[in-house]
Structure to design on (367 residues):
């Protein structure tokens, strides 16, 4: 009977015991501060210098003819792609071609006449040579035949040289009426129409692959960049696409009182999406370090002259003093204090100290 009384008493006390334990757990959870953490990793970091630039053609050529005349045919319009050596337009050259053919005919006849005279002189010399060896003619007659042969040979050679030289000149005159593109590119200007007289600049051809970013850097930066350096370029064309370029030109002569230096950066543009006149954001990499710890700048707390972060070890917050290194795009290098693999508090660090109870609610990555 006594045993039953104890059992009844224990049964009545159990709800009170469970309620007390539950209340204690809730109180402990209420004291725990939620935090987000990130595993510290090493990476390659760089410090950028930002400036603005503008896109330009890498090559621009004005096309015109040495000859003046009436435009006969035009084969391309603005915006058309052209290849080096393709005919852009022609001048009316019918009369010129007739004159050229007539002149070439006269030159050919002069060479043919000289050739016939050389043949006759050579035949005469050989006959006189036989007679001289047979002592049938004098030395004087022999010498006269040799002199005539040598003169005929010289006249023939001169006639050939004159023909070849004049052929080049005549062909050049015709070629001046058939105007071809000197480069691969795109027609940016067409200033002529069939039936008009040609101008001083009939076509403008631009090369847009690669395309060039023209920008300027200050005197404190000019000696920190080199030809071939890789540069990040963001084109402000609506979507702000990112491109990789290379420094292709550094002007050593400053402008604007000598403290601004023009720099050019080449970007591949095989699809011709990038156009001259577009604005660009240019980022020069000035400092670069590998295997470095980099954390979000916002995770660093400051009290007086002290800068520190919190890491979580065995579910306990630890305060770690840090010094800032290279800062770039919201991240900062930490040369000392943190190690790869540490769990860095990235959210909620303002509300904790080394005596706080914490609950990790999310694990984020640097990327």
């Amino acid at each position: 009977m006594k045993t039953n009384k104890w059992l009844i008493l224990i049964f009545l006390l159990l709800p009170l015991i469970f309620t007390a334990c539950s209340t204690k757990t809730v109180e402990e959870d209420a004291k725990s501060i939620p935090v987000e953490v990130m595993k510290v990793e090493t990476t390659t970091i760089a410090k950028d210098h930002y400036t603005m630039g503008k896109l330009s053609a890498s090559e621009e050529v004005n096309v015109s003819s040495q000859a003046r005349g009436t435009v006969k045919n035009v084969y391309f319009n603005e915006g058309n792609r052209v290849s080096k050596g393709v005919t852009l337009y022609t001048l009316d050259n019918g009369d010129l071609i007739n004159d050229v053919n007539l002149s070439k005919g006269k030159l050919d006849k002069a060479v043919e006449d000289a050739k016939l005279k050389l043949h006759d002189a050579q035949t005469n010399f050989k006959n006189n040579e036989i007679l001289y060896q047979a002592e049938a003619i004098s030395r004087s007659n022999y010498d006269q035949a040799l002199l005539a042969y040598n003169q005929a040979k010289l006249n023939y050679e001169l006639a050939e040289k004159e023909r070849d030289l004049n052929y080049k000149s005549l062909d050049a005159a015709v070629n001046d009426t058939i105007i071809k593109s000197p480069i691969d590119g795109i027609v940016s200007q067409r200033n002529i129409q069939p039936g008009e007289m040609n101008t001083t600049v009939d076509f403008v051809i631009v090369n847009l692959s690669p395309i060039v970013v023209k920008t300027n850097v200050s005197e404190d930066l000019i000696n920190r960049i080199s030809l071939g350096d890789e540069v990040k370029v963001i084109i402000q064309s609506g979507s702000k696409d990112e491109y990789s370029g290379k420094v292709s030109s550094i002007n050593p002569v400053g402008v604007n009182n000598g403290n601004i230096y023009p720099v050019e950066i080449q970007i591949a543009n095989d699809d011709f999406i990038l156009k001259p006149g577009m604005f660009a954001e240019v980022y020069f990499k000035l400092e670069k370090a590998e295997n470095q710890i980099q954390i979000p700048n916002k995770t660093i707390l400051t009290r007086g002259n002290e800068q520190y972060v919190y890491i979580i070890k065995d579910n306990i917050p630890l305060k770690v003093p840090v010094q800032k290194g290279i800062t770039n795009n919201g991240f900062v290098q930490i040369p000392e204090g943190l190690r790869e693999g540490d769990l860095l508090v990235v959210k909620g660090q303002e509300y904790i100290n080394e005596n706080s109870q914490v609950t990790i609610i999310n694990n984020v990555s640097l990327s």
